[in-house]
Amino acid sequence: MARQRIERTDREWRELLTDEEFRVGVKEGTERAFTPGNLNDEKRPGLFHCKGCGTPVWSSEHKFDSGTGWPSFWQPAEPDVIETKTDFKMIIPRTECHCAVCGLHMGHVFKDGPPPTGMRWCINGVVLDFRPQE
Ligand SMILES: [Zn+2]
Q1: Is-catalytic flag, 99?
Q2: Which protein residues have their CB within 5 A of the ion that is ligand 1?
Q3: Distance, CA 10 to ligand 1 centroid (Å)?
Q4: How far is the CA of 68 from the centre of ligand 1 (A)?
Q5: Which of these is catalytic: 53, 97, 99, 122?
Q6: In the predicted model, is pLDDT for residue 2 greater than 70?
Q7: What is the rounded distance in angstroms from the CA atom of residue 128 to the CA atom of residue 53?
Protein backbone atom coordinates (compact mmCIF):
# COMPACT_ATOMS: atom_id res chain seq x y z
CA MET A 1 0.00 0.00 0.00
CA ALA A 2 1.35 3.41 -0.93
CA ARG A 3 2.01 5.75 1.93
CA GLN A 4 -0.08 8.86 2.23
CA ARG A 5 1.89 11.93 1.22
CA ILE A 6 1.99 15.30 2.91
CA GLU A 7 2.60 18.43 0.83
CA ARG A 8 3.55 21.69 2.52
CA THR A 9 4.32 25.18 1.26
CA ASP A 10 7.42 27.03 2.47
CA ARG A 11 5.18 29.16 4.66
CA GLU A 12 3.70 26.07 6.33
CA TRP A 13 7.17 24.59 6.82
CA ARG A 14 8.33 27.85 8.43
CA GLU A 15 5.64 27.55 11.05
CA LEU A 16 6.65 24.00 11.83
CA LEU A 17 10.43 24.16 11.80
CA THR A 18 13.21 26.24 13.32
CA ASP A 19 15.38 28.30 10.93
CA GLU A 20 18.11 25.66 10.93
CA GLU A 21 15.63 22.80 10.37
CA PHE A 22 14.10 24.76 7.48
CA ARG A 23 17.48 25.52 5.92
CA VAL A 24 18.52 21.86 6.04
CA GLY A 25 15.21 20.04 5.57
CA VAL A 26 13.44 22.27 3.04
CA LYS A 27 16.31 24.09 1.30
CA GLU A 28 18.44 20.93 1.23
CA GLY A 29 21.25 22.39 3.29
CA THR A 30 23.71 20.46 5.41
CA GLU A 31 24.24 20.87 9.12
CA ARG A 32 27.78 21.31 10.37
CA ALA A 33 29.52 18.00 11.15
CA PHE A 34 29.68 17.13 14.85
CA THR A 35 26.92 19.65 15.62
CA PRO A 36 26.17 19.15 19.33
CA GLY A 37 22.84 17.38 19.67
CA ASN A 38 22.75 16.18 16.05
CA LEU A 39 22.30 12.58 17.25
CA ASN A 40 25.68 11.52 15.89
CA ASP A 41 26.52 10.31 19.42
CA GLU A 42 23.12 8.77 20.09
CA LYS A 43 23.81 5.12 20.94
CA ARG A 44 20.64 4.04 22.70
CA PRO A 45 18.26 1.62 20.98
CA GLY A 46 15.32 3.38 19.42
CA LEU A 47 13.87 5.01 16.32
CA PHE A 48 14.68 8.26 14.56
CA HIS A 49 11.51 10.03 13.44
CA CYS A 50 11.15 12.60 10.66
CA LYS A 51 10.55 16.07 12.15
CA GLY A 52 8.24 16.91 9.27
CA CYS A 53 5.70 14.14 9.73
CA GLY A 54 6.70 11.86 12.61
CA THR A 55 7.35 8.81 10.45
CA PRO A 56 10.07 6.53 11.87
CA VAL A 57 12.69 6.74 9.12
CA TRP A 58 15.88 5.37 10.69
CA SER A 59 16.58 2.77 13.37
CA SER A 60 19.43 2.39 15.85
CA GLU A 61 19.70 -1.19 14.55
CA HIS A 62 21.20 0.15 11.31
CA LYS A 63 23.26 3.00 12.77
CA PHE A 64 27.04 2.92 12.68
CA ASP A 65 29.87 5.29 13.53
CA SER A 66 31.14 6.57 10.19
CA GLY A 67 33.53 9.07 11.78
CA THR A 68 32.09 11.84 9.58
CA GLY A 69 30.28 13.70 12.36
CA TRP A 70 26.82 12.97 10.96
CA PRO A 71 24.45 10.22 12.05
CA SER A 72 25.03 7.38 9.57
CA PHE A 73 22.96 4.32 8.76
CA TRP A 74 23.45 1.40 6.42
CA GLN A 75 19.76 1.27 5.51
CA PRO A 76 16.45 3.09 6.20
CA ALA A 77 14.13 1.77 8.93
CA GLU A 78 11.77 0.45 6.21
CA PRO A 79 12.52 0.21 2.50
CA ASP A 80 9.75 2.61 1.47
CA VAL A 81 10.14 5.43 4.01
CA ILE A 82 13.05 7.08 2.21
CA GLU A 83 13.24 8.19 -1.43
CA THR A 84 16.25 9.39 -3.39
CA LYS A 85 17.02 11.72 -6.26
CA THR A 86 20.19 12.87 -7.96
CA ASP A 87 21.59 16.15 -6.63
CA PHE A 88 23.66 18.19 -9.08
CA LYS A 89 24.71 20.89 -6.58
CA MET A 90 28.30 19.68 -6.62
CA ILE A 91 30.47 18.98 -9.66
CA ILE A 92 30.11 15.26 -9.06
CA PRO A 93 26.42 14.37 -8.76
CA ARG A 94 25.39 12.92 -5.41
CA THR A 95 22.34 10.95 -4.41
CA GLU A 96 20.10 13.03 -2.18
CA CYS A 97 17.60 11.32 0.14
CA HIS A 98 14.36 12.56 1.65
CA CYS A 99 11.36 11.40 3.66
CA ALA A 100 8.93 9.56 1.37
CA VAL A 101 5.93 10.93 3.25
CA CYS A 102 6.57 14.68 3.58
CA GLY A 103 9.60 15.18 1.32
CA LEU A 104 11.84 16.61 4.06
CA HIS A 105 15.48 16.46 2.93
CA MET A 106 17.52 14.09 5.11
CA GLY A 107 21.00 13.90 3.62
CA HIS A 108 22.88 11.89 1.01
CA VAL A 109 23.68 8.25 0.35
CA PHE A 110 27.13 6.98 -0.63
CA LYS A 111 28.42 3.59 -1.68
CA ASP A 112 31.21 3.33 0.87
CA GLY A 113 29.23 1.96 3.83
CA PRO A 114 29.70 -1.20 5.87
CA PRO A 115 28.14 -4.64 5.27
CA PRO A 116 25.57 -5.94 4.73
CA THR A 117 24.45 -3.20 2.30
CA GLY A 118 27.70 -1.35 1.55
CA MET A 119 25.69 1.86 1.69
CA ARG A 120 26.29 4.90 3.89
CA TRP A 121 23.24 7.04 4.45
CA CYS A 122 24.72 10.27 5.79
CA ILE A 123 21.94 12.11 7.60
CA ASN A 124 21.42 15.53 9.17
CA GLY A 125 20.36 14.89 12.77
CA VAL A 126 18.63 18.27 12.95
CA VAL A 127 15.66 16.96 10.93
CA LEU A 128 15.19 13.95 13.22
CA ASP A 129 13.56 13.30 16.59
CA PHE A 130 15.03 10.36 18.46
CA ARG A 131 12.69 8.28 20.59
CA PRO A 132 14.46 5.70 22.75
CA GLN A 133 12.97 2.24 22.96
CA GLU A 134 10.75 1.80 26.03
ZN1 LIG B 1 8.60 13.19 6.83
Answers
A1: no
A2: 50, 52-53, 99, 101-102, 104
A3: 15
A4: 24
A5: 122
A6: no
A7: 10
pLDDT single digits (tens) 63-93: 999 999 999 999 999 999 999 999 888 888 8
Q: How far is the CA of 65 from the centre of ligand 1 (A)?
A: 24
Cα of 127 vs centre of ligand 1, distance in Å, is: 9
- Phi first, then psi, for residue 25 (nearest 5°) are -75, -35
pTM for the structure as a whole: 0.93
Total domain count, the chain: 1
Q: Please report whether residue 85 resides in a domain.
A: yes
Whichever domain contains 14, its CATH number is 2.170.150.20
Nearest-angstrom CA–CA distance, 71 and 120: 10
In a domain, 2, yes or no: no
Task: For residue 29, give the nearest of 108, 119, 101 by alpha carbon.
Answer: 108
